[in-house]
Write a structure and sequence with these properties.
Layout: E1 2-9, E2 12-19, E3 24-25, E4 29-30, E5 35-43, E6 48-51, H1 59-66, E7 73-75, H2 81-84, H3 87-93, E8 98-101, H4 103-113, E9 119-121, E10 125-129, E11 134-139, E12 149-153, E13 158-160, H5 181-199, H6 203-214, E14 220-221, H7 233-243, E15 249-257, H8 262-276, E16 280-285, H9 291-299, E17 301-308, E18 310-311, E19 314-315, H10 317-324, H11 328-331, E20 335-342, H12 348-358, E21 362-363, E22 367-370, H13 375-393
Parallel strand pairs: 6-7, 7-8, 8-9, 13-14, 15-16, 15-17, 17-20, 20-21, 20-22
Antiparallel strand pairs: 1-2, 2-5, 3-4, 5-6, 10-11, 11-12, 12-13, 18-19
Bound molecules: MU-OXO-diiron (FEO).
C-alpha cells in the first residue's frame, strides 16, 4: 500500500490509498488491477470538509497524508466499509468534527461505530457552506447503497460521485489525463467491469445519476475508486449510457441440466411451445455452459425456465450454481418457472421454484414428469411453454 496526495484544484486535494495487493473485492469481485480508496479534502475560507476515508489498516498513512489538517466536516458519501470503516478512527482523531450524510447514512454510521456523534443530515439535498465555497450535497439512493450521496463543488466544477463512475484500478496516475495509452486501455476495461458487477443491478438509479451529472458544468469527476476523470467526460457518459441499456430481448431462456436426456426432452418441448407464443428461445445445457453468460442472457430476456432432474432428493448443483450468479436486485419481477424429470421423489422442481422465489422472480407453478416423458406429457410441456410465453406477451 502507498498513499498519494495531489492538488486537483485550488483548495481541493485528493488523498488516494493505493491498494495494489487487493485481489478480490467484497469476496465477490476479482480486482485484477487492485484498487484505490479516494478521499478528498475540500477547503473553504472558514471550514474544511473531508469526503470519505480509507480502510482502518491504512489509517496511519492516511493520517500522515492529512498532515495535521482538522476537518470540520466528515462527509460520508456512503457507509460501505471500504471507505467508511475508518470512521471510528477519524472520530477519535477529530472528536469535534460533524459527520455529514443522508439520514439513513447517519443511521448506518452509528451502527458502524456503535455510538453517537455530532451530525448533519442531508435530507434530499443540502448546501454545505465552507466559506466562499458552497458544496451541493445530493442524496442518490441506491447508487449503489441506500445511503449514497454525491457532492458537487460549483467553484471548481468537480463532482464527487461516491462509487459512481468508479473503477477498481490502482496505478501511480491519479488523473486519467496522465495515463499512458496502454494504462488507459486497462483502466477502461476495469471501469466496464466495475459497472457490470457493482452498478448494473441499479441501472434505473444509474440513469438518474447520469442525468444529474450531465446537467452540471464539469471539469472533473472524482470517484471513490480509480483515477479522477479529467478528460473525455463526454466519452464516459456515452460509455455509461451504452452499459446501462437494458432493453429485454423478446425471448425466454431455457437452461437445464439433464443426466439421461429426459429433462432435455422437456426443455425441447417447452421451447417449441414458447416459440408458438411468438417469443424467441435461447436454450442452454448447463453441463457445458458458461454460467456467467447464461445469467447475463437471463437478465436481458423476458422469461426464464430452469430445469433439473432430481438426484439425491435435490436439484443438480449446477442449477443452483447458476442462480448464485443472479440476485434479487437485478432479477426481481422476471417471469420464471422450474421444470424437470425425476425418478424417485422429484424434489428438484419445488426446490428450484423456492430459489427462484428468493430471487423475487414472478414464479409460475413448475412442471414435473416422472421417468420417461410420454408423447402426451411432451404435448402438455409444449402447451405449458406456449402459455408461459403468452403470459409474458400479454403482460399478465
Ligand atoms: Fe467503494 Fe461501495 O464502496
Amino acid at each position: 500500500m502507498s498513499m498519494k496526495k495531489i492538488e486537483l484544484a485550488k483548495g481541493i486535494e485528493a488523498l488516494s490509498t493505493l491498494d495494489y495487493d487487493l485481489k478480490v473485492f467484497d469476496v465477490i469481485m476479482k480486482t485484477e488491477f487492485g484498487s484505490s480508496y479516494n478521499a478528498y479534502l475540500i477547503h473553504g475560507k472558514e471550514k474544511t470538509a473531508l469526503v470519505d476515508g480509507t480502510k482502518p489498516s491504512f489509517f496511519g498513512g492516511f493520517l500522515d497524508a492529512l498532515k495535521g489538517e482538522k476537518p470540520d466536516y466528515l462527509v460520508v458519501n456512503h457507509t460501505e466499509p471500504d471507505h467508511s470503516s475508518s470512521l471510528e478512527l477519524m472520530l477519535k482523531t477529530y472528536p469535534d468534527s460533524v459527520v455529514v450524510a443522508t439520514p439513513v447514512g447517519l443511521d448506518f454510521a452509528r451502527q458502524l461505530v456503535n455510538h453517537d456523534f455530532p451530525s448533519l443530515p442531508v435530507k434530499g439535498s443540502l448546501q454545505l457552506d465552507l466559506g466562499e465555497r458552497v458544496l451541493e450535497l445530493v442524496a442518490m439512493p441506491n447508487l449503489h447503497w441506500p445511503d449514497t450521496m454525491w457532492v458537487y463543488d460549483k467553484e471548481s466544477e468537480i463532482l464527487f460521485p461516491c462509487d459512481g463512475f468508479g473503477a477498481h484500478f490502482c496505478s501511480p496516475y491519479l488523473r486519467l489525463s496522465e495515463m499512458p495509452d496502454e494504462v488507459k486501455r486497462q483502466y477502461r476495461e476495469a471501469r466496464k467491469f466495475y459497472y457490470d458487477v457493482i452498478m448494473s443491478p441499479f441501472a434505473s438509479f444509474v440513469d438518474k445519476g447520469l442525468s444529474y451529472a450531465k446537467a452540471l458544468p464539469l471539469k472533473m469527476i472524482a470517484p471513490g475508486h480509480g483515477p479522477v476523470i479529467d478528460e473525455d467526460i463526454e466519452q464516459l457518459y456515452a460509455d455509461y449510457e451504452k452499459f446501462n441499456l437494458r432493453k429485454e430481448k423478446d425471448q425466454v431462456v431455457i437452461a437445464y441440466g439433464s443426466a439421461y436426456g429426459k429433462t432435455r426432452k422437456l426443455a425441447e418441448a417447452l421451447a417449441k411451445g414458447v416459440r408458438e407464443s411468438g417469443l424467441g428461445v435461447c436454450v442452454f445445457d448447463l453441463e457445458n455452459a458458461n454460467l456467467d453468460a447464461v445469467a447475463k442472457e437471463v437478465l436481458s430476456s423476458r422469461g426464464f425456465l430452469l430445469g433439473s432432474c432430481t438426484i439425491l432428493s435435490d436439484a443438480l448443483p449446477v442449477a443452483y450454481e447458476l442462480t448464485t450468479r443472479m440476485n434479487p436486485v437485478a432479477y426481481h419481477g422476471k417471469r420464471a418457472a422450474a421444470f424437470g424429470v425425476y425418478g424417485w421423489s422429484g424434489e428438484a422442481v419445488a426446490n428450484l421454484s423456492t430459489r427462484l422465489g428468493q430471487l423475487r422472480m414472478k414464479v409460475e407453478e413448475g412442471l414435473r414428469v416422472r421417468f420417461e416423458p410420454t408423447v402426451e406429457e411432451l404435448k402438455q410441456a409444449q402447451e405449458y411453454g406456449k402459455q408461459f410465453g403468452l403470459k409474458i406477451t400479454k403482460g399478465e
